[in-house]
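Supplementary notes for students who missed Thursday's class. We covered one full example, reproduced here. Read the sequence, then the structure, then the short commentary at the end.
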Amino acid sequence: MTEFNQENNVSQFFQIHAENPQARLVQQVVEIIQGGGVIVYPTDSAYALGCHLGDKHAMERIKRIRQLGDKHNFTLVCSDLSEIATYAKVDNKDYRTIKAHTPGAYTFILNATSEVPRRLLHPKRRTIGIRIPDNRIALAITEQLGEPIMSTSLILPGDPDPLTDPYEIRDLLQHDVDLVIDGGYCGLEATSVISLVGETPEIVREGAGDISDFR
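Structure (token representation):
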């Protein structure tokens, strides 16, 4: 396995087709993730930072980039519904809710299973964000990877909104990440966050996904 350490180097830059992601490039993305790399990749709401869910060092790099504290809820970006049950406790009602709104610009907060590393969880609530994006590049990466990407929106400290221009992202973060993927324009609003931990869904953040079903 290749070890990636980008602290003194310049990030790679892949242009991946938004509708027909090139298999060769997707495989290279997966190899970077598996090797401990931090990537910037497109989703259906905004660009995101991602790494291997089992890699503590890569997660710490993401936390430094975004200046995140220990209480930040990371998100697991999954390829499909079947993957969710491995990492989150989902009853029939939750399953129907998620199925009706995915793929889409939603992050669902659920109670985590023991498969999720403790460091990814909210320290008091043991919850995890789960998401299936409506973006072919993101889905191609997770499908090839065979497990979720540990992810968070690419919002830099002091900025109210996520970054949207991959060339600007490369200029800003070329010494902090291992790869920037240019997947074209993918929106500038973070996901809507819906908590399914309680008896009824709770809107935690209003974002790109239509939340009228949850009001």
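Commentary. DSSP finds six helices and ten strands in the chain. The chain has one domain: 12-207. If anything here is unclear, bring it to office hours.
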